[in-house]
Write a structure and sequence with these properties.
The protein has 243 residues and is an alpha+beta fold. The longest helix has 19 residues. Keywords: Cell inner membrane, Cell membrane, Membrane, Protein transport, Transmembrane, Transport. It is found in: Cell inner membrane.
Amino acid sequence: MSKVLKIAIPGLVLFLLALASLLPLRTATEIFGPAGFGYQRVEGTVWHGMFHYPRLGRQEARSLAVSLSPAGLLTGTAVADFRLTGEHVSGSGTLSLSGSTTQLRDAGIDLNLDRRAGDMRFRGTLYLSIDRLALTDKGCEQIDGLFRTDILGPLKSMGLWSAAEATGDLACNDGRINIAMTDGEGEGAESRRLSFSFDPLQMRLDTDISVKTVSAELVNKLTRAGFRKRNDRWVWHHQERIG
């Protein structure tokens, strides 16, 4: 390669990056934005911009700030820091896209949940601390992180759970992101399970509660709350699309 080319190529790359930095975020979103993504107003460029009242499907937040990293573009990877604020979801982290793989790193996500099971209402927060999440066209491929939640109050007040809060590891299972909590004596006479299972491809969230008990009083409460008998356990299931 000639000395002229060695000098010209880096200069050309920098020139193209400079042009890219002037591309309005609105234009970039119209070209590259995911299906179902919308907003009320947008400002700034791809280098640093802000969506006001962004929405994906039926889920809406107050604002989404994004800052694109120029270093990632040199390796063919789009890397952006983001900060999301809203009534039901907020958080921040680093998102990268390379080929068919999307990764989320160093992220903290707060979800405000409100679920009903008969006369029980599960209302509280679910916090996700994600070191790394890898999504492909098959769904969740790998996740490293922890969760913390305080939505177990109704189960605790019924005598079904020993505490109103729980923590644990995040996991991938069959392409889904899984959050599972257990309480009681494992598979003994008294045991409880609660799980959230999120399908990132279908944007579907499943909530499952399973209780094993020999208490007639608790069985009556579970029946009134809408639980159904399945083998030796009482179960409740709720499914919803969130996008």
